[in-house]
Amino acid sequence: MRRGSLIATAATGATLVGSATVAAAEPIAEPAESTEPGGRTEVTLTEGTNLAAAVSPDGTRIAFDLVTGIWVLPVAGGDAVRLTDDLQDATQPQWSPDGGTLVFQSYRDGNFHLWTVDAAGGKAPRQLTSGPFDHREPKFSPDGKRLVLSSDRGGTGSYGVFTFDLATEAITALTDTASEEAAPCWFPDGSRVAYTVDEAAIDAVDVASGAVTRLVVAPEGGKLYGPSVSHDGQLGYVRLPRSTSCSATRR
Question: Which long-range contacts (CB under 8 A, 24 or more apart) does 191-196 make?
Fold first, then answer.
């Protein structure tokens, strides 16, 4: 139940606009056997559901997850390049500040773990985390030196918010309480991280001091998903009221 709830948080509000022809980047893996002439089958996809998408820092490319893989598509349209294989079960791609690398979560071994892959394709992904606990929803810090993520590694029986140092691979808790803390995102100066709490509130934690500030409370019976912070520091999120409809909010 808890994992399913967090999957819903991660997927809310993602859309792929337009049509694209998708073609696997080479080399990633041996192609599957096919009865078609030439041993390959090409498929044109024009839409998908439950996608997560992220625009590159320079605004020219979109990374997204589709059919268990991570893809990169030009914003102007054209061919999408697949960066991961069928077994990766990869979702939630996010760009490094320099646009050269994507980080994503993978369910390849039965737990969610973090991987990186070269955004240009042609290289095998690199695994960052391992073990019996989930590590998911990664985002690069503004300086590109750390990731923020959610994980149940802290021993509280719930998800908390952690950082991963890319140089040392040290994982440090920012906040880890009995509440479900998920969907973390950085403020643009890297000093704070916003995240959801039990899908009923959005808090921000100061990275240096650990001080927590409550930013938003959901209306009675409502839920909050997918916080994000703009370049000028404004918080956006998805608010699901008691009814089945949802709305996006910026403050």
Answer: 193/148, 193/161, 194/227, 194/229, 194/235, 195/150, 195/161, 195/227, 196/9, 196/224, 196/225, 196/227
